[in-house]
Specification:
By secondary structure, the chain is an alpha/beta fold. It has helices at residues 53-63, 77-91, 102-110, 134-137, 158-167, 192-208; strands spanning 2-8, 15-21, 40-43, 68-71, 96-100, 117-121, 144-150, 171-177, 216-222, 227-230.
């Protein structure tokens, strides 16, 4: 992976961006008038940065297949949406937008008429006071949305998400990262980097090709083999929070194991709670296994 940095004019100060490219991509000043163009615009959560493990791992995995532009924002949701719009204008690109946690909400709100796909990683569906499903339910039927959620994410219960997906007008896909929390970390820590990179790889491939009949997939950390594994896409599973099916099960896709390169154990970012957005630091509690069968579109 090659990485370039750039600034986008914005008041009161420029927006800091990082463009990650597949290794060997022809380099040049990354602006709207020069190649390469990103395949995805992406932004971090409320307490994150461009160097946060979750962003670094995801963008590294994505960039193995296609360019991704990540930008630095602040902790205010409305301000982040305005910054997102500025990045869209600078890059003349809004076909595929995404983000993690609060950044995922900002991506939905910044979507334009030209936006075709949304990548929502660790979408903070609920807090103790509200369910943040309104903007999802308002999405046009032509949109395609992929959710990447940890099975232990305390801010996105998989049962509640299945209910929301069933009520959304557009086609949706779900990648469950087994045993990952809201910060997309898994135990042991040495698996976090490999799992994080694989989420980026899966999303990049989904952008290239997706089947509306095959909408469920899982990423797991195989401690014995010390690698991240991707189940491949299949039809709906009856229990979104249950362990993934075994290789000999009647999964419609054969299991695909992808080994992500692994460096030293990555450090978990320390993100504080945001008063303006209600975002939390990664939680350790398990999510409910309550699920509802998604409505047929």
């Amino acid at each position: 992976m090659d990485r370039q940095t750039l600034e986008i004019s914005y008041s009161p100060k420029p927006i800091q961006c990082a463009l990650s490219l597949p290794t060997g991509t022809k380099k040049g000043k990354p602006s709207k008038n020069t190649a390469p163009s990103p395949a995805l615009l992406f932004t971090h959560g409320a307490g994150g940065t461009l160097s946060s493990d979750a962003i670094a791992n995801f963008s590294s995995g994505f960039a193995a297949h296609a360019p991704i532009l990540c930008f630095q924002g602040n902790m205010n949701l409305k301000s982040r949406v305005k910054m997102y719009s500025a990045v869209i204008e600078d890059q003349s690109f809004s076909t595929c937008l995404g983000g993690r946690s609060m950044g995922a909400r900002a991506a939905v709100m910044a979507a334009t008429n030209a936006t075709e796909r949304l990548v929502l990683v660790s979408y903070p569906l609920h807090t103790g006071k509200e369910t943040r499903d309104k903007i999802l339910l308002e999405l046009a039927s032509s949109m395609k949305v992929i959710f990447v959620i940890g099975s232990r994410d305390s801010m996105c219960d998989l049962g509640q998400l299945e209910d929301v997906r069933g009520r959304m007008k557009c086609a949706t896909w779900l990648v469950v990262v087994q045993e990952a929390d809201h910060g997309m970390t898994v135990k042991p820590k040495k698996g976090a980097e490999a799992v994080g990179k694989m989420t980026g790889e899966v999303v990049a491939r989904w952008i290239d090709e997706s089947d509306e009949k095959m909408t469920e997939g899982r990423i797991t950390w195989d401690e014995e083999e010390e690698r991240a594994q991707w189940s491949g896409w299949s039809a709906e599973w009856k229990d979104a929070a249950a362990p993934p099916p075994k290789k000999e099960s009647s999964c419609q896709n054969s299991e695909v194991a992808i080994t992500a390169s692994q460096g030293k154990g990555s450090r978990r970012s320390n993100s504080k709670q945001s008063k303006s957005t209600g975002e939390d630091a990664p939680a350790e509690e398990s999510v409910s296994t309550r699920t509802r069968k998604r409505m047929k579109r």
